[in-house]
Amino acid sequence: MEWTRYIDPLLQGCWVTIELTVYSTILGTLLAFGAGMGKLSHNPLIKALSVTYIEVFRGTSLLVQLFWLYFALPLLGELIGLDLRFHPVTVGVLALGLNIGAYGAEVVRGAVQSVPRTQYEAAKALNFTRTQTLWRIALPQALPEMMPPFGNLAVQNLKDTALVSLISLGDLAFRAEQLRNLTQDSTTIYTMVLFMYFGMALVLAALMGLLERHVGRWRHRRR
Amino acid sequence: MLFGIEWDTSTSWAFAWSILPILLRGMVVTIQASLLGFFVALGLGLLLASLKGVPLKIIAWPAAFITEFLRDTPLLIQLFFLYYVLPDYGIVLPAFLTGALALGVQYSAYTAEVYRAGIQAVPRGQKEAARALNLSERLTFIHVILPQAVVRIVPAMGNYLVSIMKDVPVLSVVTVLEMLNVAKIIGDRTFNYLIPLTMVGALYLLLTLVAAWGVRVLDTRLPKRGIPLK
């Protein structure tokens, strides 16, 4: 069989894709919480910084961001006397994380704002500190609200990793392109690759579903 | 030189000023591809949503699978698939059309969901009232459901148009001369990527802010109770 020869190189690519997805989703989550809470901050500087980050990365294209970090940033570094040349993996994770983090920030902001005012007032009446209110009142209620959109964003991020093949990173899309150049058997290769991405997306969605149940478990315990 | 326009590399500002018209040419292609892809997505999404709504499982189930499959696979791979596989079956399209088609195919999965959600969001009571008034199923859909669903569908579609715009740079891989590709070529030839790529970022910000503002205006202008189709 011809197509079995493609499995090994493609699986190697899958592994890189999975690594990129995991790293950039973690980075994106951190940025999402940082910027999402930052947008709700009373400190005008933090707020302005968060809003600018969210608007810039949501308002421009991921590929533009990726190319900017890969081609333009080193030149900017030269201009200001810093070495800003990074490994393609770093650039890929950075671009994907920054991009998905900006989308995630709006999810975090929305979920935190959806916690009823009375919850904050009750926390104040019970003499909770601001940190306690955030960790014990706001976040436990906001997290389950965030999970369904976060699940969608994670799958979006997995799909977006395909773009890093354009800065010569050996992910699944890159391997597919290599094999196609070698064999010209585009139908078989791209069909296999489409199903591999589909499979990974289904697994990722299932994992996010488990996580969703986990962060929402306190809701079921009470009832 | 690109599109017959020379650039001036004497100073940074002169360079930026001289490549602006070239980038704007690319922006026109970006907008054209977005619009064409958007219309394909609107049509294909409607088809998928209708097929998913068919009571016959043998039609509805494959349609649901296709929608899920299109949603969960990367635009880049779908684009490569169309670009390299279609010619094997005798369908040779220019890169621009293949690109717009790929955008439309990818986003049809999303627009199908918008149609479904928009129609489902119309309160049940409306359908029941129409039945009580002895309206046929077809008339109910055209004169009761659709007018109320449209006001929910239009703004959501607008948001996807903005998303499509941001995905157009992917078409650069099949040699479509959209804005990012133009900037990349300028960078390749002048060894200055910083200015063209930064300008593309700024132009994108401008484009999406204007488009998002347009969607917001549309949303507030639409009558909340629905648009009668007569």
TrEMBL record, chain B:
Family the UniProt entry places it in: Belongs to the binding-protein-dependent transport system permease family. HisMQ subfamily.
Residues that span the membrane, as ranges: 22-47, 91-110, 193-215
Organism in which the protein naturally occurs: Tepidiphilus baoligensis
Protein name per Swiss-Prot or TrEMBL: Ectoine/hydroxyectoine ABC transporter permease subunit EhuD
Domain ABC transmembrane type-1 as annotated: residue spans: 23-212
Membrane topology label: Multi-pass membrane protein
Subcellular location: Cell inner membrane; Cell membrane
InterPro entries listed in its UniProt record: AA_ABC_transptr_permease_3TM, ArtM/GltK/GlnP/TcyL/YhdX-like, Ectoine_EhuD, MetI-like, MetI-like_sf
Alphabetical UniProt keywords: Amino-acid transport, Cell membrane, Membrane, Transmembrane, Transmembrane helix, Transport
